[in-house]
Amino acid sequence: MIDRHQRTPAVRAAIGLVALTTALTACGGAAGSAGADAGPAQPGGTLNYGLSTAPTCSDPAQAGTNQTIYVTRAVVDSLTDQDPDTGEIVPWLAEKWETDADATSFTFTLKDGVSFSDGTPVTAQSVKNNFDAIVGTLGAAKAPLAASYLAGYVGTTVVDPRTAQVTFSSPNAQFLQASATSQLGLQADATTSLSAEERCQGGNIGSGPFTYTDYQQDRSVSVARRAGYSWGSPAFGHTGEAYLDGIEFTVVPESGVRTGSLSSGQLDAVSDALPQDAPTIEATGGRVLTTSNPGTPFGIAPNVSRGVLADPDVRRALVPAIDRQQLVDTVLGPNFLPATSTLASRTPGYVSLPDVTFDADAARTVLDRAGWVPAADGIREKDGQRLSFSILFSAVFAGNQAILELLQQQLRDVGVDARLELTSVPESIARQNAGDFDATYYNSTRADGDILRTSFAADGRNLNQRGPIADLDASLTDQLRTTDTTQRGEYLANAQQQVLDNGLWIPTVELSQAVGASSAVQDQRFDASARLQFFDTWLSRS
């Protein structure tokens, strides 16, 4: 139990809202509809959407946060799409494809008659220019996800104007799914020829159902319907152009302001609608749409190269010290799940790990045996060093601060002092890239278990600042090399366990997207990676 006098304001507020979380139970679902009698879709109108944080960049290839991808996905199409119901890879810009036996070569045949919004055609040369620019111009520093999807990229051969052969130096079994992500969406030559910084200014030219009309960093983004769009994915709900005339994205960091603006009609939909928001939203006829994210759950990534977290026993003790169910029940509500592995449960290849279990006594035992002894204030010490570290985080999700404040108290109960460092998203990314942190808190969304390689490979993002770990390195490499689903699942299962056993990830909760929508918003859908898909959305204005 937590001493009520030790609760921080954010945790006290969250605890007071537990009774309201049941309001979300009836609001879940992967798609939204105002009701069976809304009638046929009505084209027209502008959707006013409230983002909880500012997009970090207008470039899909450099996008990382959910709020950024909500925006960038609207303007860019990908070679393939992933069906959100089945996980199947389906055609999009490519009408068909072939993969060689060892997954080193992928040949895509593009649809005929597809164009970018500047009127230039989408060709095999476009594929080459996009992938070459990700690897050569942007690189892993600017586009960590996109670059990881192109691991071992040798180049793209333009076989003919509509046929592109993408080749890798070694097997890359995850690439076909990666070709469905927005980070590998295709943009026109006028965009791919720009520098990384210039690609973040809102002039990106894609072939998507919407186009940028205004981009004001940290304030707002406007997109308009693309006239003549007719090459949507079969995973979409209709054909032809998008229904909406446009979307106005406004950055509204304060949860209460977002909810109030939704209830008053100033906004039509908002991000990060938490349990306390549900009664207000529902009182005016709205609802909360939810879906859980695949990928890595939210968790703590220790920097194993410095401080007390260089001690593997400390990292090992943190896993059972966290009561994940309490985090969900107190802060988030029933549409969220406690993490049970180093992958989220909706991710292909996920396995439940029994060690991701709350057992405070087990945590204390690990620390006792490792020589960490409680001092007078309850925080442990060893050889004159206090068991204290900081957790770097940003408010990319509205519940992060309250979650971490409660986690902070849970860790203190076993003698660990976790200090919280709230920073802006750009500062957080910069410090992560520089390794300037003790631990950092985040999640990564992707509907493929290869997200483990992106996050934890020594030659990947490697925020752990780790060196070689033979078993883990082999599993991450082997899952990339095999196209056999069963065998790949075995490699991923071992990788999940190895990430945990080596203390590279301290899982907390699985992220769910919770979007508040007014009664006017119809057919608001999530894609396979739990990001909003606005193509089918329409407004039933009275």
Question: Could you please describe the fold and organization of this structure?
Answer:
It is a single chain. By secondary structure, this protein is of the alpha+beta class. 27% of the residues lie in helices and 22% in strands. A hairpin with a 5-residue loop joins β26 (524-526) and β27. α15 (470-481) runs antiparallel to α16. The longest helix has 19 residues, at 124-142. It is globular and about 70 Å long.
Short description:
This protein has 542 residues and is of the alpha+beta class.
Q: How do the strands of the widest beta sheet line up side by side?
A: 9-10-11-2-12-24-13
Low-confidence stretches are 1-36
The structural class is alpha+beta
- Please summarize the sheet with the most strands: 7 strands, mixed
Mean pLDDT score, rounded?
A: 92
Q: From the alpha-carbon coordinates, what is the Rg to the nearest angstrom?
A: 23 Å
Shape: globular
| Beta-strand residue fraction | 15-25%
Helical fraction: 25-40%
Distance between the termini: 50 Å
- Helix count equals 16
Let me know the number of strands. Answer: 28
Characteristic terms for this protein:
542 residues; alpha+beta; five-stranded mixed sheet; 28 strands; 27% helix; disordered N terminus
Provide the fold topology:
Layout: H1 9-15, E1 31-32, E2 46-51, H2 66-72, E3 80-82, E4 89-91, E5 94-99, E6 105-110, H3 124-142, H4 144-149, E7 153-160, E8 163-168, H5 175-178, H6 189-192, E9 210-216, E10 220-225, E11 246-251, H7 255-263, E12 269-270, H8 278-283, E13 287-292, E14 296-302, H9 312-321, H10 324-332, E15 337-338, H11 360-369, E16 373-374, E17 380-382, E18 385-386, E19 388-393, H12 400-412, E20 417-422, H13 425-434, E21 439-444, H14 451-456, H15 470-481, H16 485-501, E22 506-507, E23 509-510, E24 512-517, E25 521-522, E26 524-526, E27 532-533, E28 538-539
Parallel strand pairs: 2-11, 2-12, 19-20, 19-21
Antiparallel strand pairs: 1-26, 3-4, 5-6, 6-8, 7-8, 9-10, 10-11, 12-24, 13-24, 14-21, 14-22, 15-23, 16-17, 17-18, 25-28, 26-27
Helix pairs in contact: 9-11, 10-12, 15-16
